[in-house]
Amino acid sequence: MSISLNDQALDQLFREARSINVWEDKPVSDEQIQALYDLVKMGPTSANCCPARFHFVKSDAAKARLKPLVMEGNDTKVMQAPVTVIIANDMDFAEKLPQLFPHNLDAKSWFADPAVAEETAMRNATLQGGYLIMAARSLGLDCGPMSGFDKDAVDAEFFAGTNLKSNFICSIGYGSSEGIFDRSPRLAFDDAAKIL
């Protein structure tokens, strides 16, 4: 049975969490990255399709490949952060459905239409990217998600010869309070939601 998280957990995940612009010089281990993925993979996707692919850009050589492909300002974040994840949509995700959705072996055929597959991949990989942010925060890591990059160039550099398409990138590590803007306003319930 689920219980409500306490205020400390809710603050860490939502209320006090911020998008980070400046990073402490503190590494994120491969074991932390594995633990992060082990949480992310448990988040729900339609038909358990799990279309996101996560490329953890950690080495200096990999960061140097990514740096020129992001907008000015974001390049500094990529180089300074211990890890920047490229969250990609796998357009061939349906190939894994016999493994991931074994109770209906016909599920692969649901995504034979490329337009349906593309929409499904985008929606569900984006969900998985959101899970990545929340999982990282739950493990005591900070995040800096970004969409300011050259998508085609990232795809050519990191995913040539595959059917992966970049969705967004997210730096992960230990954030500094330096460079954090005042929190921007959020929409009130009545401006963004309805109970029908």
What's the short story on this structure?
This protein is α+β, with helices and mostly antiparallel strands and 196 residues long. The chain has helices at residues 7-15, 30-40, 60-66, 74-80, 97-100, 114-138, 151-159, 189-192; strands spanning 52-57, 83-90, 142-146, 164-173. The protein has a four-stranded antiparallel β-sheet.
Please name the defining characteristics of this protein.
alpha+beta; 8 helices; NADH Oxidase; 4 strands; single chain; 196 residues; 15% strand; 4-stranded antiparallel beta sheet
Question: Would you kindly provide a written description of the structure presented here, covering whatever features stand out?
Answer:
- This protein has helices at 7-15, 30-40, 60-66, 74-80, 97-100, 114-138, 151-159, 189-192; strands at 52-57, 83-90, 142-146, 164-173.
- The chain is of the alpha+beta class and 196 residues long.
- The protein has a single domain (22-176), classed as NADH Oxidase (3-Layer(aba) Sandwich), CATH 3.40.109.
- A four-stranded antiparallel β-sheet has the order 1-2-4-3.
- It is globular and about 50 Å long.
- The two termini are 27 Å apart.
- 29% of the residues are buried.
Give the topology, please.
Layout (H helix, E strand, L loop, with lengths): L6 H9 L14 H11 L11 E6 L2 H7 L7 H7 L2 E8 L6 H4 L13 H25 L3 E5 L4 H9 L4 E10 L15 H4 L4
Antiparallel strand pairs: 1-2, 2-4, 3-4
Helix pairs in contact: 2-6
Please estimate the helix content: 25-40%
Flag low-confidence runs. none
Structural class: alpha+beta
Q: CATH H level: which superfamily?
A: NADH Oxidase
The total of beta strands comes to: 4
Oligomer: single chain
Write the CATH architecture name: 3-Layer(aba) Sandwich
The arrangement of helices and strands along the chain is HHEHHEHHEHEH
Gyration radius from CA atoms, angstroms: 18 Å
Mean pLDDT: 96
CATH third-level topology: NADH Oxidase
What count of domains describes the coordinates? 1
Overall body shape:
globular
